[in-house]
Specification:
The chain has 184 residues and is of the alpha+beta class. Helix content is 23%, strand content 26%. It binds zinc ion (ZN). The site of zinc ion has 5 residues, from helix 2.
Length: 184
């Protein structure tokens, strides 16, 4: 089932998400709905707050970039209760966009490598260092679980440049091809 996307201005995007328990009702169904919603919107990642649920659940699909990055062929996973334990001092700039902030793409500086802990879709525990594009997508998505968006990480100058566009977005003025939860 395709779920409506919550767009900038929806309070749930600014909430601290709660940890979920393994007996969370219909977890597998929720994960599968999130996969479907992400694919339909052509995203590489989707965090539960973006579909209105303030819980620590993220899905990531990197198969869509595997033509350019073959190491991600078939990569489709869920990340439950993820946490970033440490990060590399080395940073890199990469352009990001967000399904909850349609039509905005900006370069964001983030650590290059991250040490993460999470449960996967089979509730298997992972504790690993991640780098490359996956590390980037994870950081963007895990930010959502802290009520943070990539636009918060831009320079004061870029924020000022985007101000009116973002304000209009919170009032429902935006264009995107996927189903959204109407703002206001
Ligand atoms: Zn996002």
């Amino acid at each position: 089932m395709i779920l409506p996307m919550y767009i900038l201005g929806q309070p749930v995007l600014r909430k601290q998400a709660e940890e979920i328990t393994p007996d969370y009702p219909n977890l597998q169904e929720l994960i599968s709905n999130m996969y479907e919603t992400m694919k339909k919107a052509e995203g590489v990642g989707l965090a539960a707050p973006q579909i209105g649920l303030p819980i620590k659940l993220v899905v990531i699909d990197l198969d869509v970039v595997s033509d350019d990055m073959p190491e991600y062929k078939g990569f489709l996973h869920a990340f439950i209760n993820p946490s970033i334990i440490e990060t590399s001092e080395e940073t890199c700039l990469m352009e990001e966009g967000c399904l909850s902030v349609p039509g905005v793409h900006e370069s964001v500086k983030r650590p290059k490598r991250i040490h993460v802990k999470y449960l996967d879709e089979n509730l298997t525990e992972h504790d690993e260092w991640v780098d490359g594009f996956l590390a980037r997508v994870m950081q963007h998505e895990f930010d959502h679980l802290e009520g943070k968006l990539f636009i918060d990480r831009l320079s004061a100058f870029r924020k000022q440049m985007l101000k009116s566009k973002l304000l209009a977005m919170t009032k429902g003025k935006y264009n995107c091809s996927y189903k959204t939860k109407a703002n206001r």
